[in-house]
Design a protein that fits this description.
331 residues, mainly alpha, two-stranded antiparallel sheet, 14 helices
C-alpha cells in the first residue's frame, strides 16, 4: 500500500527571496541614474534618437547571452562556451544562407538547432562523466573554437538575406526589433522558470539537490535541460548577431564570455544554483551597456572598462558568498 506524504511535509519549490527584489530595485535605480549622468555630462548626446536606438540594438545580444549563462547557473553549473557557441551559431546561420543557399527561416532554425544540440551534448557529457560543467564546457569551447577557424577559416560571410538584416536593423515605433525580440525571449525564460514545472525543477535541483531527488526530481535531467536551454539561447543570440551585423566571421563571440557572466552575477543569480533573476540579469546587461557607451563618449581605454566590470563581478560574488542564501527563488 502506497503511503502519501502529507501536504504540509512535501518539499516546496523555492520562492523569490527578498534580496533578489532588492537587487533588481537597486539595479533599476543605478541604470536610471547612470543614464541621467551620461545625458548631463555629454550635453544630451545620449538622448538623441540615433544613440538611443544604438544602445538598445546592441543591448539585445548581451541580454540573451546573460540569460544563456543564467540557465546553467540555475543548477549550479557554468558554461564557458557561451560566447564561442554564439559566434559558431552565427557562422552556421550565415553559411546556410550564403554557401548552402537556404532561405533565412531555415538558416535561423539551423542555428537554433545547432546551439540546442551542442548544449544537449554538454549536458549529457556532464551527466555521463560526472565531470563539472566548468571543465566540460571548457573542452567543448576549445573544440568549437577550432571548428570555427578550421572549417570556416577567416572568411567573412556577407550578402545574405536582406530581409533578415532589415528586420534586425529595423524598429517598431522607434524601438529596435532585435531588442523587442530579446525582451520576448526574456519573458519566455521568466515564464519557464516561474510557471513551467520543468523550469521549477531546475531551481529545485540547484537549490537543494538532495531534497529535489527525494521529492522525485531527476537532477540528471535538470542538468541536461539546463545546458540544452543555455545552448538554445546562445543560438538565438547568434541569430541576432547575424541580423544586426550584415556580415559574420570567425571572431564573433570572442568578447562575450565576461558579459555572459557579468549580467547574471551582478543581477543577483546565485553561483551555487537555485536562484535566478531574469529582470536582474537584463538590468545588469543594461548597466554594462551604459558603461560601454560611457567608454565611447569619454574615450576611456577599453582595458579600464574590462577592469571595472571584472571588479564589479568579483564584488558581487564576494557579497553573495557572505550572504550565503539558504533558499532559492524564481524570476
Amino acid at each position: 500500500m502506497t503511503t502519501l506524504t502529507p501536504p504540509e511535509r512535501r518539499p516546496r519549490l523555492p520562492r523569490l527571496p527578498e534580496r533578489i527584489a532588492g537587487t533588481e530595485t537597486t539595479l533599476a535605480a543605478l541604470a536610471v541614474a547612470g543614464y541621467v549622468v551620461l545625458a548631463a555630462t555629454t550635453h544630451g548626446a545620449v538622448v538623441s534618437g540615433g544613440t538611443l536606438t544604438a544602445i538598445f540594438q546592441f543591448l539585445a545580444v548581451p541580454m540573451v547571452i546573460g540569460l544563456s549563462q543564467m540557465a546553467v547557473l540555475s543548477v549550479g553549473q557554468m558554461n564557458l562556451g557561451v560566447g564561442v557557441l554564439t559566434g559558431f551559431c552565427a557562422m552556421v546561420c550565415a553559411w546556410l544562407m550564403v554557401a548552402a543557399g537556404l532561405p533565412a527561416w531555415l538558416a535561423v532554425a539551423g542555428a537554433l538547432l545547432t546551439g540546442a544540440a551542442i548544449g544537449l551534448v554538454n549536458g549529457l557529457l556532464v551527466v555521463l562523466t560526472r565531470i563539472n560543467g566548468f571543465v566540460v564546457t571548457l573542452a567543448t569551447m576549445t573544440i568549437i573554437d577550432g571548428l570555427r577557424y578550421g572549417v570556416h577559416g577567416t572568411a567573412t560571410y556577407q550578402g545574405y538575406s536582406h530581409r533578415l538584416v532589415s528586420l534586425g536593423q529595423g524598429s517598431v515605433l522607434g524601438v529596435p526589433t532585435v531588442f523587442l525580440a530579446a525582451v520576448a525571449i526574456a519573458i519566455l525564460v521568466a515564464f519557464f522558470f516561474r510557471s513551467v514545472p520543468l523550469g521549477r525543477r531546475l531551481l529545485a535541483s540547484g537549490g537543494n539537490p538532495l531534497a529535489a531527488r527525494l521529492s522525485g526530481v531527476s537532477n540528471d535531467r535538470s542538468l541536461v535541460v539546463a545546458h540544452l536551454v543555455s545552448g538554445l539561447l546562445a543560438g538565438a543570440a547568434g541569430v541576432m548577431v547575424v541580423a544586426l551585423s550584415g556580415s559574420v566571421n570567425a571572431t564573433i563571440g570572442d568578447d562575450l564570455l565576461l558579459p555572459s557572466f557579468a549580467a547574471p552575477i551582478i543581477g543577483g543569480v546565485a553561483l551555487a544554483g537555485g536562484v535566478v533573476s531574469v529582470l536582474g540579469t537584463c538590468l545588469a546587461a543594461l548597466i554594462i551597456r551604459l558603461v560601454d557607451v560611457a567608454q565611447a563618449q569619454y574615450s576611456i581605454n577599453p582595458d579600464w572598462v574590462d577592469l571595472i566590470v571584472g571588479a564589479v563581478v568579483l564584488g558581487a560574488v564576494l557579497i553573495t558568498q557572505l550572504r550565503r542564501p539558504r533558499a532559492g527563488g524564481t524570476p
